[in-house]
Amino acid sequence: MISASFTASPIGDHDICVIGSGPAGLVLALEAARRGKRVLVLESGSKRSDRLQQALSDADIVDPQRHDDMAIAVARQLGGTSNLWAVRCQPFDAIDFEERPGLVDAAWPIRLADILPYYDKAVDYLTAGANVFRAPIAGVDIDDDGVDYTRLERFSRVAAVQTAHAAEIERSTLIDVRLNATVVDMTYDNGRIAGLTVADREGTRRTLRVKTVVLAAGGLESTRQLLVLQKKHTALFGGNDGPLGRYYMGHVIGEVADITFGSDAMDAAYDFYRDEHGSYARRRLIPSDAAQRQHRLLNVSFWPVVPPVADPRHRSGLLSMVCFAFALKPIGRLVIAEAIRKRHIPDDLAVWPHVVNIVRDLPRAALSLATFLYRRYVARPPMPGFFVRNAGRRYGLSYHAEQSPQPDSRVTLTDDFDRLGVPKLRIDYRFARADAEAVWRAHEHLAGWLTRTGVGRLEYRQAPEETVDAILGLAAHGTHQIGTARMAARPEDGVVDGNLRCFGIDNLYVASSAVFPTSGQCNPTLSIAAFAVRLAEHLCNGERP
Predict the structure, then answer these.
(1) Is the model's pLDDT at 402 over the cut of 50?
(2) CA–CA separation, 426 and 410 (whole Å)
(3) Could you tell me which residue ranges the FAD-dependent oxidoreductase 2 FAD-binding domain spans (predicted)?
(4) Which residues, 6 or more positions from 504, have their beta carbon under 8 angstroms from its beta carbon?
(5) pLDDT by residue (tens digit) across 52-95?
(6) Helix and strand tally (H, E) in the chain?
């Protein structure tokens, strides 16, 4: 059941109260309900984006060049940020849970084996086909294990979680979703959360008694709730010098090199394709665990992308058309996420060279564009991204690298308040030069592997000695929100334990990327969903509380 407001009808007795209706919140609610539990879901937004409610997430961002705007980092609406992204799915790697030289403050209280059994259900909930994340390339057998070239990322057939499971949520007698219900306070008493103060869109407040509470409001907003609680009860989570809000991570992303494939087989292997499980998938290039240890790399993955569309030197009429589409905000936002659109289109876009490209290449470009639009907007499931192969087999090389945990990269509360009286966040998001150096070493390792195996070649876009600075200059993120409520074996080292229960609070749990002590190379949503399934099992088995 979904109600438009917190006060639409009386709220019945419930076993679990979930704050937030993004992938974590809805997956947990669905799994717990399937196990017979009554679940109340409180969502601050409505079914569609609401500017007034979205403004509740406005924050003081110390360096806006490093951190994405909150309008794309947080989505206060039913389904959360699954409304904004294509939901790229990859599981954690075993090495992410291991102790690694040079990586400090990175210990997990669990191992991959503890979460691995829950990926099957997570893939199902996210409509990503099957828990299959490796695909050999037909006719290709490379006798060099320096790079894993068969690893897959998968894409959700229906990205918006609330849409994928609309029928089950609506008909369930055990799931009660309340929209426009913003939690503004938690009542802490004798080691438990006794109640929540909830405000509707107009600011009217109600108090709600709870048994078990799960914060599933995304990494930043879940951390914000804990910081507000800590402000009133200063001993919680180690106080101001404790781990809460610290170790804020995302991923180190960008492009500083191009890749040219040496054969049509390898060129075709890294395009989007639909596999036998019904969802789109795509291969990534990932340095092997042995190579990561040998070269002191952080976990990182690579994949080819279209050349920079704003640079008319690509001489492609289709890419120039795409550039104009991206530049027009109403159209561009329909095609790709706003954060990605902004990275592709400069303010001083050169128009006429792109016009020349289109005129010279018009017939072929028009046909290619029609094919892309059909695959993206008519076919089901739609193609989840934009990629155009070319005769030269030359592409940009995108990297998605682990960011190391740094205690001074953190979020805190400001002295300013949102319109409901909740303190706003101050986001001091930092990148370490050592991380950029690790990404450069990963490029060097990949370049050697490409040359040795004949798979292709790598060419930098700047002088090699300028690459680390280039990587650091491109470093900006804010949508993955990892580490600020990290799990640990001891309260001195983290905010939640291995079962995601907050230290010192018997009935408060956190289900978001904020609990991950390290970021790995993978996008976090699949693992968020897997941990939500695991937490639902834990709560439904009658263990604490």
Answers:
(1) yes
(2) 8
(3) 15-63
(4) 191, 236, 237, 491
(5) 999 999 999 999 999 999 999 999 999 999 999 888 999 999 99
(6) 18, 20
pLDDT tens digits for 86-97? 889 999 999 999
Lowest mean pLDDT among 9-13, 109-113, 185-189: 9-13
321/364 Cα distance (integer angstroms): 12
- Residues 6 or more apart in contact with residue 212 via CB below 8 angstroms: 15, 16, 17, 507, 509, 539, 545
The rounded distance, in Å, linking the Cα atoms of 280 and 290 is 29
| Residue 66 to residue 252: CA distance in whole angstroms | 11
- Comparing CA positions, the residue from 288, 303, 292 lying closest to residue 255 is 303
Strand bridging mode 213-215 / 508-510: parallel
Say if residue 10 is preceded by a cis peptide, omega within 30 of 0.
Answer: no
This model's pTM is above 0.90: yes
Q: Which two tokens stand for residue 383?
A: 């193609």
Is 94 in a helix, a strand, or coil? helix
Alpha helix (H) residue ranges in 191-288: 219-232, 264-269
Q: In sequence order, what are the residues at sequence separation of 6 or more whose Cβ sits closer than 8 angstroms to the Cβ of residue 214?
A: 16, 17, 18, 19, 25, 28, 509, 510, 511, 535, 539
**Residue 316 pLDDT > 70:** yes
The mean pLDDT value for 194-219 works out to 96
Number of Cβ atoms within 10 Å of the Cβ of 365:
20
Evaluate if residue 368 carries a pLDDT over 80: no
Tokens of residue 355, six digits: 């016009």
Cα 198 from chain centre: 27
Question: Of 224, 247, 192, which is closest to residue 19 (Cα–Cα)?
Answer: 224
For the cut 70, the answer to whether the pLDDT of residue 314 exceeds it is: yes
> Distance between CA atoms of 280 and 285, rounded to whole angstroms?
17
CATH number corresponding to 2-87+159-249+477-540: 3.50.50.60
Q: Is the pLDDT of residue 519 over 90?
A: yes
Task: Tell how strand 205-209 and strand 192-199 pair up.
Answer: antiparallel
How far apart (Å, rounded) are the C-alpha atoms in residues 293 and 386? 34
- The four Cα atoms 370, 373, 376, 378 give a dihedral, to 10 degrees, of -90
- What mean pLDDT do residues 423-452 have? 98
